[in-house]
């Protein structure tokens, strides 16, 4: 399970970073989302992976899962969700005001006519 | 007021003030302004109270929900936290003063966002928990996203988008670093981490170093340390002047976090492999930042952007001091910190009357008409320039001398001396150039090429005091200065005119004068802060109690 989880985190991070470096705002937002998924899984794993154990005290139970990373992940999810919503609104605003969805606000490598016609 | 309440009050006051301002958003602006100013005044008083309470070396703690330390979140107020709270509250007071002269009308919820920005800043300085630090970083960033966009306009949106994306990537890195540290040590309480690090098994050294260097990366991003400084100039130059003035303290949050981790977790007690982990990186990168900042200031096309680059340079100077890491250098750095924040903020604020006086040219470095009240504005600009270039006899010079004195004991001192002095010269040239362009080389409106261009393209003569709607179209493609950055094309909510507009910047400069006149007393204070920082055991004991 550790290998599977670390692979998932790695692939998510790689995709996130790749998309983050794209020139248009939508892939960048997706990249940030993937990156935050990877980070959430990573945070969750920092309390070690255990199966079938409760995080809160139960009578007669001996082993427990670490509850703190779960609380941290909840906080991170909430913050990440709010930030994603904010970035999407900002990207839409940029699309409306700058007339292009390029992150730099200008179409690089395209001709001007194409850039304006988009 | 019991001392523990005093610790949490600077966090609660702006939070509650922001909520109340949001509730009463329909009320008339005058009342909201007065309330916002009152909240900042209360924060100044609280910061002064904390300074007095921590003056004799006591470290105050507040355990949220009364949970004992490593399990609950703890707020800690030591001398450093109180000092930074005071600087933040004072700076916020002046920024708000200027905003209340009309710029806060440019968009909605300025005062709410402003108070929540202070909520995040105060929380970041007071918290004793790494994850809580992340949360307060997010709070202050989210408020700053709103403030950067305040006033609207394409230039702001573009700069804001970059700023938000860069900081979100930084937040992801912060969480990874925090997760790594939790995975290794099972705690995120800074004092507890510090205690566990002194007795760490050797096999954890690699992951711990990775996590701490990732943290350095995150803090360097917030502090705008080279090579992570590129987001700053465009963002600060496109923000409204009072916002940019408040942001002068934002880079210092990153510097504060670096200093806290470097002294508390990575001090001399941390053992081989961890002690002094940051210093080696900081010293070289900070010198590069200083030079890059001054070169940027030389190349800047407008006063707002030049000031933003000078903020980068001041971060470089500050982090050289923190990178040196001994008592004298820390004291010099902590003396330099308020000086650089106040001076940069004053210059940001001064850009408003300058830009207003120059009509469509705003604060761009092209010869333009005479500025109204030029002698007074020019004198204030001159004072700012002396402060920022570090010339005698003002506090910038004193800070630099103290820093260089501290550097003389270090092995790399010739490099540091050469960098700081060369950067000072570059800054002097940059500011002399901008000052002479703005104040001496005035051209009649009909001779200015920019004016001609504006006229032909828009078919209307520029009206002084009304910001250009068409400035962007007047710029040739590829010349990307943020046009009308300081005074955007919104007529509603124009800044105050006359001498009143100069007051906030002028009084702020008086404050730096106070920093110069009583330099000995301030230095004594910052030396006491440095002493406390270099003995992290007191901090750890105050949070966790005696070693079990």
Describe this structure in words.
- The complex is a heterodimer of chains A (118) and B (548).
- Mean pLDDT of chain A is 83; it is low at 108-118.
- Helix content of chain A is 66%, strand content 0%.
- Chain A has 118 residues and is mainly α.
- Chain A contains four helices and no strands.
- Chain A has one domain (2-51, 65-101): Orthogonal Bundle (Helix Hairpins), CATH 1.10.287.
- Chain A starts with a helix and ends with a helix.
- With 548 residues, chain B is an all-alpha fold.
- Chain B is globular and about 70 Å long.
- The A-B interface holds A 20, 25, 28, 32, 35-36, 38-39, 42-43, 45-48, 66, 68-69, 72, 75-76, 79, 82-83, 86-87, 90-91, 93-94, 97-98, 103-105, 112 and B 131, 135, 138, 142, 145, 149, 153-154, 157-158, 160-162, 164-165, 168-169, 171-172, 175-176, 178-180, 182-183, 186, 477.
Main β-sheet, spatial strand arrangement of chain B: 1-2
Mean pLDDT of chain A: 83
Overall helicity of chain B: 55-70%
Taking Cα atoms only, what radius of gyration of chain A do you get, to the nearest Å?
Answer: 20 Å
Approximately how much helix is present in the residues of chain A?
55-70%
Count of beta strands of chain A: 0
Count of distinct structural domains of chain B: 2
Distance between the termini of chain B: 31 Å
Classify the secondary structure makeup of chain B into a structural class. Answer: mainly alpha
